[in-house]
Design brief:
alpha+beta, 5-stranded antiparallel β-sheet, 21% helix
């Protein structure tokens, strides 16, 4: 297994942050066939395979706002208002994704991108572990 950590700055607002390019470069550097495992080791972020740039990212954030409002209902209540929802989100958008790699290229669908989903406005810095698994 080959592994690398990338740093992602999500900022001080809810964000869907595209990391497809970083994943493509890592997979190409690894070469061959295998699996790219993408993991964000944070209790308040997730990894999504989603179309980006055509409004789907904003739609996802809007849906998460509807499902997980930033209000005072959350028992986990430190940090900014509604912070507890950030701890529930990874149950809906898991902190990992696994993508087939063929000939050093991600085997994503035409409109799929790899993104970090982050509702936690209290933590602007994220680390993402990319791991390439192959029996070659």
């Amino acid at each position: 297994m080959r592994s690398q950590v990338i740093d992602v700055r999500t900022g001080s607002r809810e964000r869907v942050h595209d990391i497809t390019r970083e994943c493509e470069v890592f997979a190409a550097d690894c070469g061959g066939d295998g699996l790219l495992h993408v993991f964000v080791p944070h209790a308040t972020a997730g990894i999504a395979l989603i179309e980006l740039g055509a409004g789907s990212d904003e739609d996802l954030l809007a849906a998460l706002r509807d499902l997980l409002p930033a209000d005072d209902r959350w028992r986990h209540a430190h940090g900014s208002r509604g912070h507890g929802r950030s701890h529930v989100m990874p149950a809906l958008i898991p902190p990992y994704a696994t993508i087939p790699v063929l000939g050093g290229r991600l085997a994503l669908g035409t409109w799929q991108s790899v993104a970090v989903v982050d509702l936690n406005i209290d933590n602007a810095e994220r680390r993402v572990r990319l791991s390439f698994l192959s029996d070659c």
